[in-house]
Amino acid sequence: MVQVQSLQDGSLFVVSPKQETRFDMGNAQLFASFNGSGDVARLLLPAGIDLGGWRVQLRLNEQLLDFREAQAIGRLWTLRGRCARCTYTLISCMASNDPAVYQLLNVENHSGERLSLQVTIDLNAASSQEAEPPFATTKQPDFWRLWAQGGAKAAKPQPARLCVLQGGTVEFRSREHFAWVASQPPAHVAQDARSVTLRYDLTLDAGSSAQLAWGVRKSADGEADPHPWREALSQAEAYAKWLQATAVHSDPLLRALMVSGLNAALSMYKEFPDNFCGLLAGPDYAYPPRLYFRDGYWTAQILLLTRPELVRRHLLSLARGVHADGECPSGVFAPHLLEESSLPLEEQQGRLDWLPDHIDSPALFVLLLYDYVSLTEDLNVLHEAVPNRPQKMWEIAWAALQHLLRRSPNGLLEKPYAPNDWADNVRRSRWVTYDQALLVAALCAGGALAAWLGDFAHAAHFRSAARDACAALNRRLWLPQVGHFANYMRPEYTEAHFSIDALLTLYFRLVDEEKAASMVHAAKRLQTRRNAEQPFGDWGVMSVFPHYGEPRDLFGKSAQPYHYHNGADWPYWDGVYGAVLLEREDDDWRYALTRWWTYSLEQGWLTPVEYFSPPYPPGGMLQGWSSLPAAVLLRRQRPELAPLGAFTATCLGAS
Fold it and tell me: pLDDT tens, 438-466?
């Protein structure tokens, strides 16, 4: 059984790693996935090139070797093994910014005899099977049109093709070429239709050691560093030290959580052509490359405390997807995917849409802009020209605010009967507590931004609208008979169960103390340790309980109880819950912020998971917004920062 321990330095120590043990890492150019057998399971460039991976086998005098332990941190994955005659270590690492991955093998002969070590590496090209669009939308953006028509740059991810060149050199060939590099030539090379096998032979005299390094990097013209793995290892070690120095905590479990969260968020930052860059959601959401309004907001929270310049770049790229009228999709495609259009700029609206008209996106865009300016005092970003747009950043944020107001008659944001907010397998309507809370917070943020620009008249307008929206929230969506807000409500139906996303009303301080205390009490039922009605024991914090009561509102994974939006644990919502409890000095904060993490380690999941529940497979690993619990802990160590929700409390006139 795989056992995982949190070490004092913030790394994770794995006992008896298995082939299915997985550790993911990423930099600005690449995602990579490794396993407990030393294999590279996947190499994916976010621009849409899948390099495939390779399998590693070590044989000592014909005896197959395996690994007994592993250690993981940042862009380092270290496997260690031993037998009666030798010890061996395999370090996998990634360069800071280059699309390159390397492995370094060190073997020490402790016996009194000469040993022969054979390293066999089976390179496997990515599958050429073409994927289909994940699902159709009511408005087909240009990307899906190009997908169907085989558009020039766009649509399908391109697998690399393995080629053995004269002299035994191996290349991964796609739109770009990547070269296989090693510290010595292979003793044997074999090729078939989809794979290449390389064998390296090492001889170790009694008491001696031997090293072998290999990996893949982007092919370059001219002289290249003949030993690129040395610099990559140095960069990976420096990055690990930076993580450790930034995420300091006396508790090993909390420190490992913070290190892992910070690394996950930084791994999401990717750079594309056309000066487009920002935060992806996770490796499983890497293609087609797009920046999400929602995932990006929560992923950015820890980067605002550590690397705010990356959040600035994300905002400028994300702004390219805000429509002229302020409507926003769920995410924004990397523009290089689409063919050049001869249409005037104003007629190209929606070309970059990933899932159109998500009702929470405009609010999250304005809130992230506010968070960035509030923490950095960089007012210049509000006057920044957005690439390929005639408007500046504040004008785009202004449009988003106006869009929210137009959709909010009588102060209530009206959501259509559609899966177009974070719960995108649930058709919530007409009034949703989560979306209404974001509306109030975004209007408060808009008021603060306008005031910083000296536009006090419009600052007062947004603040007044925020107070009206907050009053409407408390008047319409509060359910006094159960002591908490409805999940959603329409004239003929009320979903009255407790939904964790309703805690945004406390996160942004939109309720009085009596309601806040009642909400915290109601939320305890989401803690599985306190809920005997669910049958799986103590495994985390459910997103809703009881489950959704109107079957016609559900589809996909959320149609099943305990799955996806219908009761799974989402670590980013645990972060919101934990932040609320920490500010209230409620002892349950530790359970909210850490049970998802301890459960993950019990399953052998080494990076922040997207969502999970015992009866179903987990979501993606190395998920960016699941860094939020780490952000909450890191922010707790910054007493100079204003408390969460202080800006809304000021806007709404609270003490």
Answer: 999 999 999 999 999 999 999 999 999 99
Please give the Cα distance from 87 to 210 (Å, whole number): 11
Reduce the DSSP state of residue 6 to 3 states and report it.
strand
All domains in the chain, ordered by first residue: 3-125+160-225 (2.70.98.40)
The angle subtended at Cα 29 by Cα 28 and Cα 30, nearest 5°, is 110
How many whole angstroms separate alpha carbon 48 and alpha carbon 337?
9
C-alpha to C-alpha distance for 140 and 117, rounded to whole angstroms: 56
The distance in angstroms from the start CA to the end CA of the chain is 53
DSSP code of 47?
T
Where is 269: in which H helix or E strand? strand 269-272
Q: What is the DSSP letter of 621?
A: S
DSSP state of 18: -
Backbone φ, ψ for residue 347 (5° rounding): -95, 0
Phi/psi class of residue 276: alpha, beta or left (left: φ > 0; alpha: ψ in -120 to 50)?
A: beta
H or E segment and range at residue 41? strand 40-45
Question: What tens digit of pLDDT does each residue of 415-438 get?
Answer: 999 999 999 999 999 999 999 999
Question: What gap in Å lies between CA 76 and CA 152, rounded to an integer?
Answer: 37
Q: Round to whole Å and give the CA distance between 39 and 16.
A: 15
Q: What six digits make up the tokens of 109?
A: 């002969």
Query: Could you give the CA distance from residue 151 to residue 339 in angstroms, rounded to a whole number?
Result: 7
